[in-house]
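Recall the central idea of this unit: under ordinary conditions, the amino acid sequence of a chain determines the structure it adopts. In this exercise we apply that idea directly, starting from the sequence alone.
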Amino acid sequence: MRLSRTARTGLVVLLAALVTGTQAGAPTAVSANPLGKDLDAVLSAPSLAGADIGLVVRKASTGEVLYTRQSDRRRQPASNTKLFTTAAALDRLGPGYRFRTTVESAARRVGPVLAGDVVLRGGGDPTMLAADYDALAAKIAASGVKVVTGKLVADDGFFDRVRLGTGWSWDDEPYYYNAQTSALTIAPDTDFDAGSVIVRVSPGRAGKPAKVELDPPNSYLRVVNTATTAPSGSTAVTVDREHGTNTITVSGSIPAGAAPDEETMAVWEPTGLASSVFRDALARHGVRVLGTSVTSTAPKQPVLATRDSIPVSELLTPFLKLSNNMHAEALVKAASRGAGGTGGWADGIATLEKVLPAFGIDPSRLYLVDGSGLSRMDQATPDQIAALLLAARAKPWFGQFYAALPVAGIADRLVGGTLRSRLAGTAAAGKVHAKTGSYTGVSALSGYVTAADGEELVFSMVSNQTLGSPRAAEDAVALRLAQYAGAADRSQPVATITDRSQVSSPRDELECSWTKSC
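Accordingly, the structure predicted from this sequence is:
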């Protein structure tokens, strides 16, 4: 087995654990077997002392419990919440569900003139790009319309107008992974980071200001740029957004000749950005809107142009591989509307929870307030997560769900996802399909492992009250499960895994996709 130099120089999590008697919780009733002994040792690592950790391992074919430790205790599941959201949305909305965006108008048409308002109506699509708004504008122009005498009405009433989830951290508010949820939004990239823009900082001439561009280009945001171009050195650029505004501040320095520095930032009120980009697209295609742009609800009107999103079955790939929070919230609010609700979080969560008994989960025994797991108020147990993963295997959409999970050690970003740089070169590479989840003090890894004897295993490990990241222990658990040999299993040392328990900043404990580091 070949490991990277980083892995070879890391700490041996299991061996370190074997020399300590510290236990991260009460011993399991099934730890007398070799697998149980090894997992007990992993969870006894000194770096986990004082943490609250739950782990359960079950056979996928029978549901038999192979290992359990404090797996019935509720904890913050972080992005493992997305497993509940995904399974429930697939059952409630269906894999073929598509979000719809329309351009409508009841205005009287007089030659090339629409004598009234035009309505841009959002249906919650988190995959809308500037190119999609351009295509809608092109359709309007192709119909012969040259002038709209009324207003451009941006209707985001398909969802409620509560933009940020309950319990979301205020200091994450400027960052794209904490963007505002709107039924009319726009993404700057094909990761579909809805409600955000890319701020691209490039060097100018030495001693001169740095250059700043927004993607998509727009006049909705204001840029205050004090960044300079240094003759040499390393890039030290800071990008921020003033709270409650769309003023982007750029400071620091970037050396001459350096590659552009990019930061993805959340927008305040993304409906306005979508409306602004669409208005600009109309102008490029020769359609003048004489009135102002407003955000308001409008009655249904004749449809002039339509854009349907990719189906949910395809959205699952960027959603789960890259742990995209905005996709989760769009699914929750869409589920609310599908059940006749207001398009809000409370209605959406209640709608999704109604399907949980079919997965062997009592909704009264967990607590969810959002779809992404960003909230510190979400509470679930490893047992509940494992039950969902087991029951999902019997669903007609399971193949799509399984394929959308990150795969350990596979470098392709849209295959490996948030596990692409973990467990590479080990027996677990390509064998672990699991959802990650992490922010400061919390980490989770839950999914499926194909063991050495071909047995499919289901596992869920949720850690709270950690100091630093327990990813090394998660990797050790996943690797040991991949080495499991059933009746012929023997206790064995787990390969060296890089210990990441020490982190330099709270942002290092976030999902790697949120910091664009994987």
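The first helix runs from residue 5 to 8.
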